[in-house]
Specification:
The complex is a heterodimer of chains A (318) and B (737). With 318 residues, chain A is of the alpha+beta class. In chain A, 28% of the residues lie in helices and 30% in strands. Chain A has 6 helices and 18 strands. In chain A, strands 1, 3, 7, 8, 11 and 12 form a 6-stranded mixed β-sheet that branches. Chain B has a 6-stranded antiparallel β-sheet with strand order 9-12-6-1-18-17, with helices on one face. Chain B has a 5-stranded antiparallel β-sheet with strand order 8-2-16-19-20. Chain B has a 3-stranded antiparallel β-sheet with strand order 7-11-10, with no helix packed on it. In chain B, helix 4 packs antiparallel against helix 10, helix 7 runs antiparallel to helix 8 and helix 10 packs across helix 11. The two termini of chain B are 43 Å apart. The chains are: A alpha+beta (318), B alpha+beta (737). At the A-B interface, strand 2, helix 1, helix 2 and strand 7 of A face helix 9, helix 10, helix 11 and helix 22 of B. Chain B: Keywords: Membrane, Transmembrane, Transmembrane helix.
Chain lengths: 318, 737
């Protein structure tokens, strides 16, 4: 089927030869009913029945033209969708209008809602697209259909669109807490200790570091002091100073699983006030936090080259 | 949103156990997903299939069904009508109290009950009445069962069928108007049902749907008229389902017994209409429209001769030789359905209608019973002589019943003694009817086993059938061959339509006697009774219209005149309706072709004409639909014209550029146009964005635009490179072409 191409602004306008139209099931039933009444009225030479039959046939024919014209001349622009996690629905906002200012009846988008397009106004309809792969996904084409005015005919047109959405890896259901602090004076003992703390269920404990003046006495690890290992401060989540480095190679499993775990960790780290950095093979994102940083990390995860060369095909609007 | 969905699913859950299981697991899955990811509601294909209609749509469907089936409900048996109304009532109540919704088994039981009711009422499930009743019951049940939008759509489609079949029960213009109104209603409901995404129902939506239905119907009307006039008709049915099984048709029957005509006389229905080619020399009260001819009697009942004796093959041999004296009268008759073979004609038909034959006793018989309105042409001669009565006819015309009494013989014997010829015997008899105290009444006293004897000597009160039958019997007793003719007497002239209308109340019976030298001569014994002895019964006055034409007295009062005028107008409209709408046939179509000079093409000509005219109509609508709205603002209009002029040379305005950028592009592509375009753009900007008081300025602007005629090739200025060729600019994107 021919698609309506889009111009350099991403606007596709539905032309006359790109509109397809077929009767709906109701339309076919209506046709069968007309055939029956036509035969009956002809056979019994019932002129009034014949006239009513012709009137109904005329209504159906005229409605067919209305249906077709309801798509003609529509301009469609689809904006890029906000990034979503894989498995969720990406939501594209589609803008529809008639540049010439004709009034249009209700138009529906596959995977989205319906709405009329008043003369010289823009209608906005959201289209939800299911996502199956991480990475940038282009939706390529939109199906615009209408059953205006009677539902006897369905006209549709495919339009090309450059709109795309970045799909983040799906966050793993659970992941180990974001890695240990990588501060300058970290010690391997403290790491072990921290592991012990972690195992004992102290969720908020992140690690320990050397004492700095001003640290609260409550955070000082007194047991370590008792073993005469000097002043060590325990770090808890919520401490803005905490910093973790996430690494793709920390984890086991195939690439996608590891990316999923990292995604979960990034979300977790963002939920706790942790500064986090990300290392993906050669690409390193220095530690940071905040919405912008999170996006940058997730984007890096989304765009990380796939292990196998199974190029994800672009899903159509579903 | 997800929660709402779950609730609605719970409500729709079907009855069966397996369904419930499925539904629950589905629900659980839904819930599971909903907890984790806030899913937007999936609006897929089910948007059209399982969408629920709202209460307004359901109520509207019920109301439409009730109103649309009203004429049919009145025509059907009471129990069926009540059942249908009850079903519709329940359907209406369910909208308010959804708990009343019957389950599958109850619906099945109701369906069976409906079928049984129809079977009980009509002893059949097919045929016109039973079939229509069954259809109506099923449609009402479908309404009861309807829950989704799809159900309602199917309902509206079958509703169209229901509208059409009601024309089997009546063909009045009021019914037609009502049906068209109902059709518009159904279209409005379909239009409303086709709207998928709507937050809530508002009054404005109904108005929009009604508006759309009216527009569609109005646009369909020309096409319907073209098809109606030009769609080739069938001359004969393809098949016959005996649809007319129970339609009560009033009209003459082929036998005469006491009471058979008096029923007709009180019926105000139309029998037929006549249009004479030229004004007839005949006064209306001398128009005897001949129908069946009765020969045989058993003393109570008169019947025609068996068909084989009047067979067409031998008819020509036995027909008396005719000498026509007067000029033939030519006329067309539009006959209401009679379910009988006779076609009515004046006196002696000379030119026969198509598909009809003349019997030996001058009955005009159609080859098939007249079950629909029938238009035929005939010509008749009212003055003629005949000779040569065959022996068989003479025997039949002298047949006597067994219950002839002595009184009758004595009466006739007296006449025979006093007169020398058959004509004189007739005179004697008519004199007897005139002098004896015979009364004309539509309510005669009951007569015994021998009605003729009792009528002649005892009651002496009756109407045409009594007079005709006793007169004929007396003639036969006197040895004069005689027979009874049934038909209509008189006609009412309508000055508006130029038609003569003959009503059932004009039904009449008279006698024909054979007089040597003259042939069969009409004798109307009813006319012989003294005028003052005609009882003008009350109902003639009150029903006005039903009074037989022969008794109608000219209205003198102003009100009476007015009423009469109104009646004539109604009759003229009615006659036009019957002639041009109900009676429109292939004959009229061929006549139309004839006028257009296409008669040689016959049906093909019709088909070609229909295609051409239909396409022309549709093309008109295509142009109307494609029409672009013109901006109100004159400045804007002229600005658009400027854009169109430039589009012709490949520089249409882009949607996303303002006048400045447009001008820039024009300058880039066509430097030769720079000055004139700049002037126009500047003027436009001034008019648009700087308030002006002078109305003449926009006229100037428009004149400027009109003078702007860019040629498709740049004028000799060589400054432009290849990029300045028309059509190669960035503007020529396919979308904006």
């Amino acid at each position: 089927m021919r698609r309506c191409p889009h111009d350099h602004d991403g606007i596709a306008t539905i032309g006359a030869r790109r509109i397809y139209i077929l009767p709906t099931a109701t339309g076919f039933a209506f046709g069968a009913m007309l055939f029956a009444t036509l035969l009956g009225s002809l056979n019994y030479q019932n002129n009034l029945g014949l006239f009513l039959t012709f009137l109904m046939a005329g209504i159906a024919l005229v409605s067919m033209h209305h249906c077709w014209y309801n798509l003609l001349g529509l301009s469609v622009r689809c904006a890029d969708a906000e990034p979503v996690f894989c498995g969720r629905q990406a939501r594209f906002r589609v803008e529809l209008w008639d540049w010439r200012g004709r009034d249009h009846g209700e138009v529906c988008l596959r995977g989205g809602g319906c709405g009329p397009i008043p003369a010289s106004a823009h209608a906005e309809i959201d289209v939800s697209v299911a996502t199956f792969h991480r990475g940038p996904v282009q939706i390529d084409e939109l199906l615009i259909e209408t059953r205006h005015p009677l539902g006897l005919f369905r006209a549709w047109a495919w339009t090309r669109t450059p709109a795309q959405v970045l799909v983040y890896p799906a966050p793993a259901p659970e992941a180990p807490p974001p890695g240990l602090g990588t501060t300058a004076d970290h010690r391997s003992e403290a790491k072990a200790e921290a592991a012990a703390w972690r195992d004992s269920g102290a969720e908020d404990f992140i690690g320990s570091r050397g004492y700095r003046p001003g640290d609260s006495p409550r955070q000082i690890d007194w047991k370590v002091l008792a073993r005469e290992r000097g002043l060590v401060t325990k770090e808890f989540a919520g401490d803005p100073a905490a910093e973790v480095q996430l690494d793709l190679h920390q984890h086991r499993g195939n690439l996608e699983q590891r990316l999923s775990v990292l995604t979960r960790q990034i979300l977790d780290a963002e939920a706790r006030p942790l500064r986090y950095g990300l290392r993906l093979g050669t690409e390193v994102i220095p530690a940071g936090r905040g919405e912008h940083h999170k996006r940058r990390c997730l984007e890096a995860l989304a765009r990380y080259p796939a292990e196998f060369d199974s190029a994800p095909s672009a899903p159509r609007a579903a | 949103m997800a929660a709402q969905r779950r609730i609605s699913q719970r409500r729709d859950r079907p009855q069966g156990r397996s369904y419930r299981l499925w539904s629950r697991s589905h629900e659980a899955a839904q819930q599971n997903r909903a907890d984790r990811v806030a899913e937007p509601p999936s609006t897929g294909g089910d948007r059209y299939r399982s969408r629920r209609p709202d209460a307004w749509q359901l109520s509207a469907a019920t109301a439409l069904l009730g109103l649309g089936a009203l004429p049919l409900l009145l025509a059907l048996r009471l129990q069926v009508g009540l059942f249908v109304l009850a079903l519709l009532g329940i359907s209406a109540a369910i909208v308010r109290w959804p708990r009343l919704q019957p389950n599958r088994w109850l619906l099945l039981a109701l369906t069976l009950l409906g079928g049984l009711l129809v079977l009980d009422a009509y002893h059949s499930l097919v045929g016109q009445n039973a079939g229509s009743a069954l259809l109506l019951v099923m449609i009402a049940l479908k309404r009861l069962e309807s829950r989704t939008v799809r159900d309602l759509r199917v309902l509206m489609v079958t509703f169209g069928f229901l509208l059409v079949i009601q024309f089997l029960f009546g063909e009045s213009p009021w019914l037609a108007a009502w049906m068209v109104l109902m059709l518009i209603g159904a279209v409005a409901l379909l239009a409303d049902l086709s709207v998928a995404g709507r937050p809530e129902h508002r009054l404005a939506d109904w108005r929009a749907a009604g508006h759309r239905a009216l527009i569609l119907t109005a646009q369909a009307m020309p096409l319907a008229l073209v098809l109606f006039v030009l769609f080739p008709r069938l001359d004969a049915p393809l098949w016959d389902l005996q649809l007319d099984d129970e339609r009560g048709v009033t009209g003459l029957t082929d036998s005469l017994e006491p009471g058979s005509i008096s029923e007709l006389i009180v019926s105000g229905e139309d029998a037929f209409r006549v249009r004479f080619d030229s004004p007839p020399a005949l006064p209306p009260d001398a128009m005897y429209w001949r129908g069946p001819v009765l020969w045989r009697t058993n003393g109570q009942r008169w019947v025609p001769r068996p068909e084989q004796q009047t067979d067409a093959a031998s008819a020509a041999d036995r027909m008396p030789t005719r000498t026509l004296i007067s000029e033939p009268i030519r006329y067309s008759v539009l006959l209401e359905p009679t379910d009988q073979h006779w076609l009515f004609a004046l006196e002696l038909p000379t030119q026969l209608p198509d598909g009809a034959r003349l019997t030996a006793d001058f009955q005009l018989l159609a080859s098939k019973p007249v079950t629909d309105l029938r238009l035929y042409r005939a010509s008749s001669v009212v003055d003629y002589r005949m000779s040569g009565l065959s022996a068989m006819d003479e025997r039949a015309a002298l047949q006597l019943p067994s219950n002839v009494t002595e009184r009758m013989r004595a009466l006739v014997g007296g006449w025979r003694e006093q007169s020398g010829s058959a004509a004189e015997v007739v005179e004697q008899a008519l004199g007897f009817f005139n002098r004896a105290p015979f009364r004309y009444t539509l309510l005669p006293p009951t007569l015994g086993d021998n009605p003729t004897d009792a009528f002649l000597f005892e009651t002496r009160a009756g109407f045409c059938e009594h007079y005709a039958s006793s007169f004929t019997l007396l003639m036969r007793l006197a040895g004069v061959p005689a027979r009874i003719v049934l038909g209509y007497l008189g006609a009412e002239y309508n000055p508006l339509s130029g038609d003569y209308l003959v009503r059932q109340s004009d039904a009449h019976a008279w006698a024909e006697v054979w007089l040597d030298g003259q042939g069969w001569v009409r004798v109307d014994p009813t006319a012989a009774i003294a005028a003052e002895r005609i009882e003008r019964e009350l109902r003639f006055d009150t029903l006005g219209r039903t009074a037989p034409a022969r008794f109608r007295i000219e209205e003198t009062s102003a009100l009476g005149q007015l009423l009469r005028g109104a009646r004539f107008l109604a009759d003229a409209l009615d006659s036009g309706w019957k002639n041009w709408v109900l009676g429109f046939s292939s004959r009229d179509q061929l006549r139309l072709l004839d006028r257009l000079g296409l008669e040689a093409l016959r049906e093909y000509g019709l088909a070609i004409l229909m295609t051409i005219a239909g396409s022309a109509v549709m093309l008109t609508w295509v142009l109307v639909l494609a029409r672009q709205p013109r901006p109100r603002d004159p400045v804007q209009r002229c600005w658009q014209q400027f854009g169109r002029r430039l589009a012709r040379i490949g520089l249409p305005p882009e949607r996303n550029e303002g006048p400045f950028h447009y001008l820039e592009r024009i300058q880039q592509a066509r430097p030769d146009l720079e000055q004139s375009a700049a002037a126009i753009v500047e003027q436009y900007l001034r008019l648009r964005y700087r308030p002006t008081t002078k109305p003449s300025t926009h006229r100037d602007f428009c004149r400027q635009v009109r003078r702007f005629r860019p040629s498709s090739r740049p004028s000799s200025r060589p400054s432009s490179g290849p990029s300045s060729r028309p059509g190669s600019g960035p503007s020529s994107g396919p979308a904006s072409a």
